[in-house]
């Protein structure tokens, strides 16, 4: 007989279990940047293990500019905007997030299908062209273990995969 267990977590515990990755969109020294860094095609800003659930915090600290943020290769769901539940029209799956001036947005995302090198960038062309872009890598367990052997800074989740009730399913 097949037994399926659904584990229910409090929202506070869910917040502790998932990786929280902050991404700050700013203008520094006349240059559009993410996390105070210009785009480096050769170096990933972050590395994720395929299949791990993530909560990303997108924050717009660039004054009066809006940033339509495009995350390549996966869709996510908005969990909150400035700490509040998003309106119904913003609750569906997305790969572009409308980050208005001063806005803080939390999204749930899980890179499920493919390993590889991907980018996230602002869809304002002048911002994208001026380096408001970052590279991230999605890797499988074998590559995570290989990279861990070479460098300690690569992310590896030891959290077992569980169904998380109350969060969107991707």
As a percent range, the share of helical residues equals 10-25%
Give the neighbour order of strands across the main sheet: 2-1-4-8-6
Mean pLDDT: 80
End-to-end C-alpha gap:
27 Å
Cα-based radius of gyration, to the nearest Å: 17 Å
Strand content: 35-45%
Give me some keywords for this one.
170 residues; five-stranded mixed sheet
In terms of topology, how is this protein built?
Layout: H1 11-17, E1 19-28, E2 31-34, E3 46-49, E4 53-60, E5 67-71, E6 76-81, E7 96-99, E8 104-110, E9 116-122, H2 125-129, E10 133-139, H3 141-150
Description:
The chain is mainly beta. Strand 1 and strand 2 form a beta hairpin. The model is unreliable at 1-9 and 153-167 (pLDDT under 50). The protein has helices at 11-17, 125-129, 141-150, and strands at residues 19-28, 31-34, 46-49, 53-60, 67-71, 76-81, 96-99, 104-110, 116-122, 133-139. It contains three helices and ten strands; from the N terminus they run H-E-E-E-E-E-E-E-E-E-H-E-H.
Brief overview:
The chain is mainly beta and 170 residues long. It is 13% helix and 36% strand.
């Amino acid at each position: 007989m097949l037994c399926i267990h659904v584990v229910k977590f409090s929202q506070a515990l869910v917040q502790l279990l998932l990786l929280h990755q902050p991404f700050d969109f700013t203008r520094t020294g006349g240059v559009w940047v993410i996390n105070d860094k210009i785009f480096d095609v050769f170096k990933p800003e972050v590395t994720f293990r395929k299949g791990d659930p993530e909560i990303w915090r997108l924050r717009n600290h660039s004054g009066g500019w809006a940033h339509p943020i495009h995350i390549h290769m996966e869709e996510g769901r908005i969990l909150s905007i400035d700490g509040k539940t998003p309106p119904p029209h913003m609750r569906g799956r997305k790969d572009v997030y409308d980050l208005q001036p001063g806005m803080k947005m939390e999204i749930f995302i899980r890179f499920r299908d493919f390993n590889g090198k991907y980018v996230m960038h602002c869809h304002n062309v002048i911002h994208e062209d001026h380096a408001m872009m970052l590279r991230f890598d999605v890797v499988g367990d074998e590559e995570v273990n290989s990279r861990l052997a070479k460098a300690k800074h690569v992310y590896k989740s030891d959290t077992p995969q569980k169904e998380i009730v109350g969060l969107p399913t991707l």
